[in-house]
Design a protein that fits this description.
heterodimer, A: 80 residues, mainly alpha, 3 helices, elongated, B: 189 residues, alpha+beta, 4-stranded antiparallel sheet, 5 helices, 46% helix
Chain lengths: 80, 189
């Protein structure tokens, strides 16, 4: 068919991104998400928390669990 | 903190602060845990297929990608778990000797705070349906206030709904007695 042959002949545009750059871009997106999430998270607990001890504990656990994972992501993105 | 914002009335006493039953948060967090393990299961299957020579993939070539993908997946699961924890902990009932304050944290930007005066409360009923709720003693509490539209409020997954109903009923009776209102006059008060 005429239409399908013309479709096949169109060259597919491609963007040349190195794998290392791709991981770095993804990591930066994750980092931005984390910063926004942390700000919202912090705001909610500071504003609506009922127990200071529990609020502090939540922040500590949040930091302890997320920051090492974020560090690992950074290392993997930079090493590639 | 929340109690500074609610601004309790003079001499108002908090009788009870209730959050959803621990089983509710446990089941939600368990769901996140299972989802977090999903890429490891997939990796395990792919590795098994590779070993059995059903597919031929050089996994070692993609090790950084795989590690990055799994870490990112875990990271988002962790954020999801903290979101669940936030919604669980910031969602509460505060029963005082004058009011019931219902804080419903639906999403991060969807928060509903309702205040019901005890003297306007008419009917409180609880429902425990199912095997697990019966064994673990959690259920739904439904209350109705007099007069105003949208006067029903329902909360699910509350621990010891029978005890909570008794606490509210007692507080209602005390409040009505304190205000010297005859029970028949509540609806028009």
């Amino acid at each position: 068919m005429n239409g399908s042959s013309s479709l096949q002949s169109v060259p597919v545009p491609s963007i040349g991104i190195e794998t290392g750059d791709l991981l770095l871009i993804i990591f930066l997106c994750i980092l931005a998400t984390y910063i926004v999430f942390s700000a919202i998270f912090h705001y909610h607990w500071k504003q609506y928390g009922t127990n200071k001890k529990m609020t502090t504990l939540t922040f500590v656990v949040f930091g302890i669990t997320t920051l090492p994972l974020l560090g690992l992501l950074a290392i993997l993105a930079l090493v590639q | 903190m929340l109690f500074d914002k609610i601004q309790l009335e003079k001499d108002e006493v908090i009788l009870s602060t209730v959050r959803k039953h621990w089983f509710i948060i446990f089941s939600e967090l368990f769901g996140v845990f299972i989802v977090a393990l999903l890429p490891l299961f997939i990796l395990f299957i792919v590795f098994g297929l590779n070993t059995a020579n059903i597919v031929a993939l050089q996994l070692s070539e993609y090790s950084t990608f795989i590690a990055f993908g799994i870490s990112a997946w875990m990271f988002f699961c962790l954020l999801s778990a903290f979101t669940i924890w936030t919604h669980y902990y910031l969602d509460l009932w505060v029963v005082t000797d004058r009011r019931i304050i219902l804080v419903d944290q639906i999403h991060f930007f969807n928060r509903n705070v309702s205040i019901f005066r005890l003297e306007r409360m008419q009917d409180i009923e609880f429902k425990i349906t199912g095997i697990l709720p019966t064994l673990l003693n959690f259920g739904t509490l439904k209350a109705q206030t007099a007069g105003a539209h949208e006067s029903n409020f329902v909360s699910t997954g509350l621990p010891d709904p029978r005890g909570l109903q008794a606490t509210i009923q007692q507080a209602m009776d005390d409040r009505i007695a304190a205000l010297h209102i005859a029970p028949d006059e509540i609806a028009i008060h």
